[in-house]
Description:
122 residues, mainly beta
Amino acid sequence: QVQLVESGGGLVQAGGSLRLSCAASGRTFSSYAMAWFRQAPEKEREFVASISPSGTITYYADSVSGRFTISRDNAKNTVYLQMNSLKPEDTAVYYCASARYNSAKTTHYDYWGQGTQVTVSS
Length: 122
């Protein structure tokens, strides 16, 4: 059974940084693309960033490009999201997800974590 477990969320002031981690188990981690999505209250879940199985190709939402960095360590079965220059509008529950191919589309991802809350105060 595939499990994705996020950690690293919390409360941070605007301009601060956080690093999220997502530990995966149950499938060959290095064969799958990974992504981060987020969902703010009363909003739809939106794409944040994704990374190819080898880690060589990454995609970012325009809203986070230049501030967030996605990376992965296939030896540790973990994907990361380094978030810098955080803004109040980044406040959301952040989810990691796994897919066969690198994509920004929610529907392409078949396994999801339970989410971790990120709150950015102004």
